[in-house]
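Re: weekly structure request thread

Next one in the queue (503 aa):
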Amino acid sequence: MFPTAPGLPLKCVNNRVWLSRDQADQLLSPARPIVLARKRPGFDLSSLIAPGLDEIGVMLPYSPLHHLLLSDFGAPLIATSANISGEPVLTGKSDVESRLGHVASAFLHHDRPIERPADDPVFRVIRDRPRPLRTGRGVAPLEHCLPFRLEQPVLAVGGHMKNTIALAWDNRIVVSPHIGDMGNARSLEIFEKSIDDLQSLYKVTAGAVICDAHPGYATSRWARHSGLLLHKVFHHHAHAAVASNLQQPSRGQLVFTWDGVGYGEDGTLWGGEALLGNPGNWQRFATFRPFHLPGGERAGREPWRSAAAVCWESDTNWPRIPATLSLLRKAWQRRINSPQTTSVGRLFDAAAALTGLCTEASFEGQGPMLLEACSRGNMAAVNLPLTRDNNGLWVTDWEPLLEMLLDQTVPDSERAAVFHASMADTLLQQARQARDIHGISDIGLSGGVFQNRILTEQAGALLENDGFQVTYPELIPVNDAGISYGQIIEYAAVHDHPTDTGS
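Done, posted below.
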């Protein structure tokens, strides 16, 4: 957090990071979000801030207490939210002291109780526009007008990671602030409170609930036991709906939904799909060669598992695989706790591990973030084979990337750049097939992988130079924080038969 004084330029910030006009405007906006900005050469703050990354999150004071602290201190302060990783922010004095006492030596409390936890919103400039990675204090609840009217109020409970909920009625939709990952009791507590609060605040009672099709998500279990009329939406259909053109719903699009993993229509874990159609009518058009993840969900925090998976799948030798993994490989060969996936997010994990940048992650997405930060220069793409299977699905094979990623004679920065260029080129080749076969010219980008600025900007430039129109969400996060919004759009198209508002 950086100190400021009224009427003065943001010298303290500008001396340490590069700020565009859009980024400066975001920092100075009433919402006071966290803005990701690139470090300047000679960055003089601690090297322990975002180690290995070329960006840090910067923010300005937004409360009287912040202004008092920063004015007296007169220099930047490192701040973090008061929560256990993945959980909502702690708000009670006793909870904070008991649960965070091992990392904080002192506590400054206020004499006013905190009614609701509120994370700070986070924005990143991608394709020359600030895009939300997380909505929160000052930004959410986020309300939009829909281009149709719903017949009854509905509640969408989102996904499992980066959870938000959404409440929609008439032609209005309200998306909650960031809640968190739903793998702990506190997140579920805040999730349920958010549902009650939204309905109470807007004086709307939902008559139906929409959840992810994954049967094991905590949000899906809650929906099944809610007593409300239940509707399920596939994870990547919701992602696609976020990037769809709601003003022209009958016009077909090809939406690339690249992320970690999500439950697919065939019961496998999707994550590298290109979906053709429009809300309520998506068809799987293209994907990636599937592979099996040893250890399943553990691969999200252990990128070496994704690297081992693609190497075992292609019979490629990776010297860093220890001999002690022989039992794990036998389990993988027997498909024991080794679900099949087409995830591009896990391919990014594999690339980060194979280049030696990240084999163990302290948070999900760390490997891909380090890979992006390492990438330098405009490199030629590796041409990945694109073939059509017996079901008419176009499938890209990632195997030709492995030799390049394992080549220790090539600098990490070049291997990372080639990987990004290859993924962007793959996206273009799949889009060209959709245009040749179906006459598609509108492309959408949605899913957590497209938080990657290099990939998204390269892919967008390739597509537009080739005559495509590209949609990338501006107000709703492309990651799983946007799933609840997409669930509402999908539900409306399939179940509610919405009426046009005429707007």
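The mean pLDDT is 92. Residues 294 and 336 are 8 Å apart (CA to CA).
Next request, please.
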